Amino acid sequence: MAPSIKSIFTAYTEEGQGERESALGYALSLAQHASAHLTIQAAAMRYAIPASLVGDFGVAFVHAENRRIGALAERFAELARTSAGLAGVTSTIETPQLVYAELGERLVSHARVHDLSVLDLEKDAAERDRGLIEAALFDSGRPVIIVPPGCETFAAGRLLIAWDGSAGAARTVAETRPFLKGAEVEILSVTGEKDLSRLVAGAELAPHLSRHGASVTVRNVAVSGGNDVAETIRQAAADFRADLIVCGAYKHSRLREWLLGGVTQSLLKATPLPLLMSR
């Protein structure tokens, strides 16, 4: 019997802008589809600045800003609570006020005890450097779906699996099992940037996915025309009319702890579709 999804986690961090992204809607849609419980963390990022640095006026300003951000997070939580009720999704909602250093730790602790997490794609480099997506990918031990703006409805009828035969790719493919029955799957191997000849070929993966009820095709594409692997994956997903891109996540550690591999970093900078990633 294929594994099912019973618990989903999504996190929203209010930093004072009052912006709304797509992860909540996508997570609600997935929870409704899977009849799963949804845990929502609507965190308010709290500023903690010593009085010795800002003086009495600065302290009062920081307290006022923390109250404002907290109120915005509470407003988002109320919206999430109402939306979950209307969707018939059972949910748990929390609104912690956390300083910057606590955000990743709290997110990871929740992600570890759920089947998967749903997070918004970070829009700019400063947000990506915050490391919340990286923390979820590399520290939680659980899969993450990263959702770009405008994608609020879960769909997995057509899956593009970016396959390089590695252990990381195999672990990520294992996380697709709840979605495979009745799905159309394309296994994409991109050649030209590294040697895949000694790794498990996509044609060898295909029978395994077929046994789980998927209709599978295999495609090998060489990088060309100035494109990199990530752009080739994006183009292939568009050609296949995929609902979801499945890709292993990779990092390097020579320069800094959370320096992502080139393909992972490029996909996280710009993806037209939700990404299912795992490490």
Automatic annotation (TrEMBL):
Q: What domain of life is recorded for the organism?
A: Bacteria
Give the family from UniProt.
Belongs to the universal stress protein A family.
Q: By its UniProt entry, which PANTHER family does this protein fall under?
A: STRESS RESPONSE PROTEIN NHAX (PTHR46268), UNIVERSAL STRESS PROTEIN HP_0031 (PTHR46268:SF15)
Q: What is this protein called?
A: Universal stress protein family protein
Q: Which InterPro entries match?
A: Universal_stress_UspA, UspA
Which Pfam family is one of those matched by this entry? Usp
Residue stretches making up the UspA domain = 212-278
Give the species: Bosea thiooxidans
